[in-house]
Amino acid sequence: MTTQEEREPGLSPLERAGTHVAARLSDEHLAEALRDELRSVGNWILGVLNAQPGWDLMKVDLKPQGGRTWLRITEHRADRAVPGTVGPIKPGSPILRRINRLQSLSYRPGRGTWLSTTITVSAEGWPEPSYSFTASHNFDDRPPVLGEEGPYQVGDALEHLEVFPRTEARVPEWLAEMAGEADLPVHVLPPDAEDEAAPAGTVNPRLREAVAGFSASPSEEAMIEVLRQCTAGNLIVDASGSDLVRGTDGQITPDSTIRLQSFAESDGTRSLAAYTAETEARAMFERSGQEGEAVLLRRPAVAVLELVAADEQYDHLVLDAGGASCRIPRRQIEWLLSSPRNDVAKNGLVLGSVPQVLSGMVGADSSLLLGVRALPEASGPQDVEPVWARPEEGQEADTLLLFTSAAEVAALDPTLEIRAAAARDVLRYALGTGAAHVCLNARPPVASFSMEDIREVLLSVEDGADEGPAGSGGQGQGLGDPSDPLNDPLNLSDGSPGAADPATIDPGDFSR
């Protein structure tokens, strides 16, 4: 059960929830503040570590729960992960203020903030190493048990939402179910709380959020998040200085000469510029000193990626230049575009349109992807198993995960291999696996369907679709069947990081 907060006159959603520092900072200054707090927490970790030299990574899980902040340290050395300290941070420790500030700075009105986080400290160059710090925030999943604090309970979650409220659409399903079982109300913000907090003319709020996250803590995971959000929604490009010829319907005709804003980088490369909000684009136009009015065009984000991939003059796509920004290298764009995608279903998820999601899942020309792992003692690419999800912690995994793009697979686990096939063939395969449900994508927004739903929607588009592939006797074929379209590994372009590790990113690719 959810209840919507009443608006107090003159107060924004953020002010009604309590004063968070993030409300008073620009995106650029906010990203800088987040980096400062992350650095402070990372340096504290280095100060309290008791480890022999030579380690590669220290992963520190942090979770506020029950009035305490719990910590778990895991040391990574070569191929070994060694468990370390687990327990609550001592009350009154100065670092608690830094952790609380990191959580508060990460708050977005309506979106919320992280429930738990993992700080990674990387060391390179022993015996006198240099250190770097990254953060992986968990906004939506039920926080894991770290030590003796016990499972994260509904009371912990509701206490979190009192300080960091969300819209109903942003309340995790597991939390809503727990509250419903306990007959407890979940207080939520009005649906427009996110829109009110976004800059005027924001055309892609989820991508904007991902770009801000990358700017605050550049990492492989943050880049993957940006890439997966680029597969839906729109972007703004600056076409000022173009010779535009419009037809009688007002649309730009092929007779136009379009010149798009781009930047010469200090390393001799060139970046095409695109923006998630009109205000950002106009601010950069004014900063350039050009005369006249800015000419801004709205284009699908995927179309902008395709433009960069098709035009060799561009080495990068820079998003939201001049503020909290992200520069995507060409090779990452080529990797994303080289694999099949299901943009119809992905956009349906973003829009919250179940009919559009289903339409994309059964379209005659649609594709779906699976993430797979090699079986023990695998002898070939056919010896793999798909990834599954558990409905709740401790229960048997009965939900087969399907994906709309390679970036969605990598967002779950960048070490997964990828299989892609015609969407209807993937759904037929799913019918034969014994799954109770399928879930489209593993990171929000997602959609889950029962196998009866899948059977019915297949029947609605083709006769006999519920019988599975020819010769299967009504059961979907296994991944190891030679005729199974999921049997062959996905071929990626030469410009990609490679099929074995599709999400590897050079530290040099990170730019703000």
UniProtKB/TrEMBL annotation:
Segments of this protein annotated with the region Disordered: 464-512
InterPro entries tied to this protein: SseB_N, YezG-like_sf
Span of domain SseB protein N-terminal: 207-335
Biased composition, class Gly residues, residue ranges: 470-479
Stated name of the protein: SseB family protein
